[in-house]
Amino acid sequence: MAENRDREGQSQVDNPVNQEAAFFGHPIDIHFATKGLQGWPKLHFQIWHQDSFGRNELYGYGFCHVPTSPGMHNIECQTWKPSGTYREQITQSFLGGGPQLKNPDLIYSSALRCKLVTTAMGTIHLKIGVILRNFDKFGIEC
């Protein structure tokens, strides 16, 4: 019987009242079977913000690759969002919302993303532990 596993999910929410940072302690447990490094997993982030009127709006995108070497890793994932036109920025300040990507593949493609005008939105700090097993059996060197 095949297991039905989610390929994506949602994290917890933090509502920092008087802080500049949100804190999460969300464990991720992933088991990945492979015979090569092609298609190695990456973590995709969408950061959302709730304004003072209770409107939820996209605050940024980011992604990072899961390290290919075993051990504990500290990773910094830079986040960004599309800037939009001047008119869209003014509209966003009054109505909320803002530009979002129609094609999420742009997040991973630096060749396509470099054509976008974006705004840096901050850094996600990750601590990731990686355990590799039997890679040498398939001739994979990490």
Secondary structure elements and pairings:
Elements: E1 42-50, E2 56-65, E3 71-82, H1 86-95, H2 110-113, E4 118-130
Antiparallel strand pairs: 1-2, 3-4
Main location: cytoplasm
InterPro entries: C2_B9-type_dom (IPR010796)
Pfam family, one: B9-C2
Q: What would you say this structure looks like, in words?
A:
The chain has 142 residues and is mostly beta strands. The protein has a domain at 42-138. The protein has two helices and four strands. The protein has helices at 86-95, 110-113; strands at residues 42-50, 56-65, 71-82, 118-130. Strands 1-2 form a two-stranded antiparallel ribbon. A two-stranded antiparallel sheet has the order 3-4. Strand 1 and strand 2 (56-65) form a beta hairpin. The longest helix is centred in the middle third of the chain and has 10 residues, at 86-95. It is globular. The two termini are 33 Å apart.
